[in-house]
Structures are given as C-alpha cells and as structure tokens.
C-alpha cells in the first residue's frame, strides 16, 4: 500500500513576538531628540535675542519634555516616567555643578595672567601706590607678590593642625572607646556640636580676646590665628575621627583582648591603625576647610606687607587676608588693576592648595587602607 | 602546657539580667569538651566567662568561682589581661587583623604587647604556630600578604595559629566552624583533634555530629523559656550524652526533637 505522504509546503512562520519584550526605542532615538531640542532651543532663544544661557535653558526644557512624550508613545508610561526622572536627576546634577565650574573657570581665567614667578617669590614689602601707577603708565609687568601670604597661610595652618589633631583625636578616642555614654560624654558631644556651628568670626574674636587678656590687649600673632582656626578645626576632627573609630568592628578589639593585649595598646595598635586612613583624610579635609578662612585671621593675625616667619611674634599676612586687602584697599587707589590681578592670582594659589589637600586626602586613604587581596 | 578548669556555682549577668545560672563543671586538661544546646541558652556567654572576656561588655558581671588549676580567675587582684594570655579564644567569625600580614597576624600576641623577639625566634614561632594550625603549607610562600586575602577556612586557622602563638594553657572556641564550608570544617575538626595533645580545648558547637566527632566530654545547656536563665542540664562523656543520656531534655535535644 503506497504511503500517502502529503507534503504540505511549510506555512510561513508567523512573526512571533516574544511576550517578554515590548516596543523599544532604538539607541539613537534620544540623541535625535537631543539634537532636535538643541535646534528648537536655538530658534526659541533667537526670538528673544540669542544668549547661550537661554539657549541651554530652552533646550533642556524641550529635551526633558520631548524625551517624556517620545518614550510614552513608543515604550509606554512606565518607561516614560523612568526617562523623565532620569533626565531630572541629570539636570539637577548639572545645575549643582554649574557654580563650581564657573568659579574654577573664572579663577583660572583671571588668575593665570598674574601667576608669575615674581608673584610667588616676592612679598609686597615696599610696594606703594606710586609703583602700581608707574606700572600701569608704562605698561610694564606687575611687580610685588604674595610670598608673605603663602608663608603665613602655611605656618598658621600647620600650627592649627598641630593643636587640633591631638586634641580632636584624643577626644574621639575617649568618646568611642572609654566613655560608656555617661554624662561627660554627652556633654562633650553637645559642645562639639555647638562648636561646629560657631561662626568663624566668633572663633577669631574668642582667640583675640583670650590672648588679649593674657598677653595684653592687641596681641596679634600667627599663633593667635592658629588657635582661632583650631576652634573651628577641632569639632571637625572629633566628628570625623569618631565616625571612623565607630566603624572599626568590635571583633577586632575582642580578638586583641583575647590575646592578652591591654586596652590602651589595643586602641593604639589595632583600632587606630585600622581606622587611620579615614582619620587622616578627615584631618586633611578639616585643614582644607580652615585654610580659606578670612575673618578670624584679620582679627587675630593682623595684616602686613612683609614676610614674617615667626608665628609667635609680629603680625602675619595670609592668602585670604591678602586677597581681601588687595580688593578692598588696592595698593594704588587710582589704578586698581595690578591689585586685582594679584588678588586673583592669590585666589588661584589658594584653590590649588585646597585641591592638593583633597588629593593628599585620597592618597592617604589609599596608602593606609587595610590591605586586602591575595 | 595545659591546665584544668573547675567552675563552682557560677552565675553570669548582663546588668540585672541573669543569663546563666548555677553552673558547676570540671574540665580535664588535654581534653576536648563540647558545649551544645539551643540558641540563646548561654553557651557563648558562659564560654566567655572562662577567660574573662565576658566583662568586656558594659554592665556584664559574674558571681561564683572559675578555678584554673585551683587558682580563682575572679579572685581579688587577678589581672584579666594575664588570664587572657593563658586562656586563648577563637571566635565564631574569623577575625584576622586587616592591617597586618599573615606573619604579623601570627605574631600579634607578641608584637601588640611590645615584647622583644629576635628575627629568627619570630620566624620559628610563625612556622611552629602555622604548622600547629595546619596552615603552614598553604601560606608559607605568602607570609607577607595580608591575612584578609585568605579563604574563610584559612582565616579561621590563621586565628587559631594566632591564639596558639601566645602559648596558652586552654583554647576556647565559640562555634569556630559555623561560618565555614564543609571542607574547611573538616580541616578545623582535624586540627582540634591534634590540639588536644597539648591544650585543653573547649568548643561551642551547633552541630551535634561535630560534637560527637571531636569531643571527649559534652555539656548540654538548656533554657526554660525566653527571659529565663540558661542552665547546665547534663555533663558527661560524649558517648553517654549521645547514646544514653540521663535527662529527658538531653535525649530530646540530641535526637533532634527540639532546638
Ligand atoms: N551583649 C548582651 N547583652 C545582653 N544580653 C545578652 C548579650 N549577649 C547575649 N545576651 C543574652 O544572653 C543569653 C544567652 O546568649 P548567648 O550566650 O549568646 O547564647 P548562645 O551562645 O547559647 O546562643 C540570651 O538570652 C541573650 O539574649
Ligand atoms: Mg553563641
């Protein structure tokens, strides 16, 4: 019996859409939306007189809205909301970044012309208005520099660190390791919190008044300024060190005790080394925080035009007070440009210092971090 | 190199809370004693009183006597630091010092106490302790690498090496294998078997097979209910506890009927 094999031609396979996928925008879609928004934004901006700020603003608004509706029409409501939220977060981030970028750009633009070797190696000693007037009249390079301010800033901040770090560190060790949440500990925590909120000028007045009482009125030296800065630094050091000590696992302390190691040795050799990277970067950030203080320095260290290496005697200039002076009381009242140029250069140096400190903090954290890996 | 422990009428408190009540137990030198019992019955608490680690916690205190070869650990004038250097401890979770190399971890008991030790003595001590903890072969080429880079089981053996490097009389272990895989657990159990030749070993375990495998004597702790103190219910040869216990509660527990 012949086999009846009917070979039906295979039906064209229906284009089966996976139930798991939905419509998806192609990868270039959002770039297209962005390009469209930029063009539209430019057009809208031209209507009211083109400006880069309005262009950016209009484009951003159009992009966020268009992104939402395009996604809504293709990918659905949930994806559209997701896109909207994502765009908002990016927008917030960019807005937050704007001031920082604009500060850096401004300081770089205005500071670099004044950043000459002369500025770095000379003080303002003997610089009078006549000199600046001549500079402007003859078109010669600006002379007079900020060497004395750099010296003052470095000395005063170093002394502030020398004072604050031991006090702050020991306080934090007491709070975390020894106090059992008693009255004294709570009082210390309270006062540290209060100190965190002290306006810096008040810290300056305190130091000035204190030294005025002890060594006679009008005592102004670099050291008085260092004390004022310590008042601002100590709470920051205490707080950051406290947090770092708290996250050292208790198991490590117990492991050490179980080996017959005394408590103070355990703290010194196990707890603090384990936390040292965090402590060190906390200290560095505290320094960065006070290095730019101006008000407390004006009332404690005074202001001079010449170099002073002695923190215990004589007035002292620093970078922030130098900037303040050059802007508010230009060396030559009639020709303020040289002073402004010096001030911007000094501001640039100050920012470089702060950035270096941040880098150092990261480096320290990296170097001291507990080692892992095989 | 090993001493006996005798506990008389020991009550252990956290502040006002009586956590463990009325323990009497005699632990022979060069033996392995296992503490078993349901969670929260006070095994860890009691173990930590044996080397005065209990009082490290704020408010924690004890009443009663713990005699190490006849000398009361809680007698007047006894320095807990001395006690702890004679009675070592290994914890539930391996806790090598993260800032130290493998070598320094082993030498921690010496170095943290600022004791002088010559380079060659230190090398000998490291080799001896790591060999004693069955870890020497695995790490001898990487002694300067951080201890935290080892596997969990190796870290736990490193902690044991660190404990035996200070030459204690007694080694206390609180669930030393509960964070480890079965292979590492076997390695530690083998090690406990060897440690018995030189030290008095007390081990808390949740694993009854483990208690049966490694211990000479077993103590069963139990608790009447939450908030009630834990008590030592039965203490006897391991074989007796697991085959023919005197108490009904012990039998229920070892046969898996509760806990
Ligand atoms: N640090 C502590 N503070 C207060 N109570 C504790 C503390 N540690 C344990 N306890 C209590 O002591 C009892 C025994 O706990 P524990 O010794 O850890 O039991 P086990 O080790 O047998 O599981 C439990 O009731 C527990 O809640
Ligand atoms: Mg326990």
Automatic annotation (TrEMBL), chain B:
<dbReference type="InterPro" id="IPR003593">
    <property type="entry name" value="AAA+_ATPase"/>
</dbReference>
<dbReference type="GO" id="GO:0035435">
    <property type="term" value="P:phosphate ion transmembrane transport"/>
</dbReference>
<dbReference type="InterPro" id="IPR017871">
    <property type="entry name" value="ABC_transporter-like_CS"/>
</dbReference>
<dbReference type="Pfam" id="PF00005">
    <property type="entry name" value="ABC_tran"/>
</dbReference>
<feature type="domain" description="ABC transporter">
    <location>
        <begin position="5"/>
        <end position="248"/>
    </location>
</feature>
<dbReference type="GO" id="GO:0016887">
    <property type="term" value="F:ATP hydrolysis activity"/>
</dbReference>
<dbReference type="GO" id="GO:0005524">
    <property type="term" value="F:ATP binding"/>
</dbReference>
<dbReference type="InterPro" id="IPR027417">
    <property type="entry name" value="P-loop_NTPase"/>
</dbReference>
<dbReference type="InterPro" id="IPR003439">
    <property type="entry name" value="ABC_transporter-like_ATP-bd"/>
</dbReference>
<keyword id="KW-0547">Nucleotide-binding</keyword>
<protein>
    <submittedName>
        <fullName>Phosphate ABC transporter ATP-binding protein</fullName>
    </submittedName>
</protein>
<keyword id="KW-1278">Translocase</keyword>
<dbReference type="GO" id="GO:0016020">
    <property type="term" value="C:membrane"/>
</dbReference>
<dbReference type="GO" id="GO:0005315">
    <property type="term" value="F:phosphate transmembrane transporter activity"/>
</dbReference>
<keyword id="KW-0067">ATP-binding</keyword>
<keyword id="KW-0813">Transport</keyword>
<dbReference type="InterPro" id="IPR005670">
    <property type="entry name" value="PstB-like"/>
</dbReference>
